[in-house]
Amino acid sequence: MTAQPKPQIKTQGGTKSGAAAAIAAAALIMAQFVPVWEGRSLTPYKDVVGVWTVCEGETRVEMRTYTAAECDAMSAEMYKEFAAHVVKVTPGIEEHPFMLAAFSSIAINIGKAGYSRSSMRREYRVGNYRQACRALLKYNKAGGRGWRGLELRRRGDADRMGEYEVCMADAVEAQLAAQGVL
């Protein structure tokens, strides 16, 4: 069995339409792995640190029972919202939709302010793309305590791709390009 090549997703960086295309691409990528890790509950529940949550990790809506279609729409909007924030505060990331998807997924967990202060964002901004992906592995705590579920979401396991793997789909190529190798 041979490995499938990474799909090429080209965006027009530096333009509003390019950013919109990158955000849409990242949202599609997130829709493939976030639900696998986050799970879905149509009814509200308290997460591991006691925060009321519904659908695929939404905490900022009315806590009531939702339909699957409502959760689908809510999740799609959440992915776009957080990807838009990551694009806004991380210039150039729209050229790297897999990194954008991974960082946006973490931003959902740690918040926009948390992402804006993060070591992964700092490393990306100075061109340390692989180190930026490695930095996301540190974000495996909730309520000051490490959680196996968050660690697995970041790293992945034998059957499921984690955010680190998604991030690295772009990082090596970006690092080589930055070094003038590609």
Describe this structure as you would to a colleague:
This protein is mainly alpha-helical and 182 residues long. The protein contains seven helices and four strands; from the N terminus they run H-E-E-H-H-H-H-E-E-H-H. Strand 1 (41-46) and strand 2 form a beta hairpin. Helix 2 (68-89) crosses helix 3 (97-116) and helix 5 runs antiparallel to helix 7 (163-178). The longest helix is centred in the N-terminal third of the chain and has 23 residues, at 16-38. The two termini are 27 Å apart.
Features:
182 residues; 7 helices
What does the secondary structure layout of this molecule look like, with pairings?
Layout: H1 16-38, E1 41-46, E2 52-55, H2 68-89, H3 97-116, H4 119-125, H5 129-135, E3 141-142, E4 145-146, H6 148-155, H7 163-178
Antiparallel strand pairs: 1-2, 3-4
Helix pairs in contact: 1-2, 1-3, 2-3, 3-7, 4-5, 5-7
Strand percentage, roughly?
5-15%
Order of helices and strands: HEEHHHHEEHH
- Average pLDDT, rounded to a whole number, is 90
Unreliable stretches (pLDDT < 50, length at least 5) are 1-13
Describe the global form: globular
Compute the separation of the termini in Å.
27 Å
Instruction: Give the helix tally.
Output: 7
Helical residue percent band = 55-70%
Radius of gyration: 16 Å
Spatial ordering of strands, largest sheet: 1-2
Instruction: State the major sheet.
Output: 2 strands, antiparallel
Number of strands: 4
Brief summary of the model shown:
This protein has helices at 16-38, 68-89, 97-116, 119-125, 129-135, 148-155, 163-178; strands spanning 41-46, 52-55, 141-142, 145-146.
